[in-house]
Predict the structure.
Amino acid sequence: MKIQVINGPNLNMLGKREPKLYGKLTLTEINRVLMEEGKKNNVELLFFQSNHEGAIVDCIHDCNEYADAIIINPAAYTHYSIAIRDAIASISVPVVEVHLTKIDEREEFRKISVTKDVCKAQFYGKGIGSYLEAISYFIKQQNTLKKKENTDDKK
Ligand code: DQA
């Protein structure tokens, strides 16, 4: 299984950016941990980060050609990017939304996610754990699918 991880604006600043909120790990360090988790489970992870809405939209479209799943932290775009919402809705690849922080316990404007409804699930508030939960979600989904295929074969 190939999972594309997409991180939105300012997440390249992790480690330096408001560490009390977002933690001390850099994005490279986070990606390294995720990569290891993927390897253990036979999952290939690909990483993309951009501060530009259009580049994120393009990446989502491209995923339709090569990815089995997408984990996206749209960052601030979560709260207002209809373009990213529409891009997610336009592809057949399943998408899960993640956030490092508890977006439901922060400022009012962060409680709204315009992307959530077009995603299969949302994991948030657990730092890097939110990304790990998203990886396990897709592994479980894959295992359920495999089991179903096996029982269908026997019919
Ligand atoms: C974030 C939450 C957003 O509100 C914020 O704009 C971010 C990061 C998170 O991971 O907690 O940049 O998506």
